[in-house]
Amino acid sequence: FESIEVKNCAHTGWNIKQSEGLRFDDCIAHDMGVDSPSGYVGGFVMVATDADFYNCEAYNIGTTMAGTATAHCDGFNIHYTGTVNLYNCKAWNCEDDGVSHHDACCGVIDGGEWYNCGKGGIASPTHGAKVNVKNVYSHDNVYGLLAASDGNVISDRGNILISNCVFNNNTTDVMCSNDYKLVVFNCVYD
Asked: Which terminus of the chain has a lower count of CB atoms within 10 Å, N or C?
């Protein structure tokens, strides 16, 4: 998928399930209305899917919910198994997270700017995911980077590497639950 813009959707811009070998270049999802949704909501929702994103953007996700985060309105919302990598992507003004990998998925977040989100600029990894993060700028969120678990971690996912990142003006720059082991180096914090 290349240079496609999806906007003004009631719930989700992109919703892809059980696919592999996908590539997104310069795609945008924005201004999702979010009218009392349930399930996975976001600009880009990937479920049990393998995909690579290059220079993609998601913004104004969950704009009608006024910051309640009850519908988990993420810019990039990734669930179940699969590998989803993001290269120089960015998300802002998301009611919940800019990007959030969940469950048993894997991936890399390399570069990009993540800001002004109601919870995490980067909430990857969460709930058992294995995601390494590098070269990002995460600012003006509740959490710059959130590595959290709801107690459903499938197994020991090993070390999560966070490198060469800048976290600035977040309420909490980096938060890690007891279920994860972060190895953080060459990062700048407020």
From this structure: C
Is the omega angle on the peptide bond into residue 125 within 30 degrees of 0, that is, cis?
A: yes
pLDDT value, residue 173? 93
Residue-wise DSSP of 133-148: EES-EEESSSEEEEEB
Which of 84, 37, 151, 165 lies closest to 99 in space, CA to CA? 84
What percentage of the chain carries pLDDT values higher than 70?
86
Cα gap 168→166, rounded to integer Å: 6
- H or E, element range at 76: strand 73-79
Show Cβ contacts of residue 89 under 8 Å, excluding neighbours closer than 6 positions.
Answer: 53, 54, 55, 56, 57, 58, 76, 99, 109, 111, 112
Spatial distance between the Cα atoms of 164 and 178, rounded to a whole number of angstroms: 23
Q: What is the mean pLDDT of residues 91-115?
A: 93
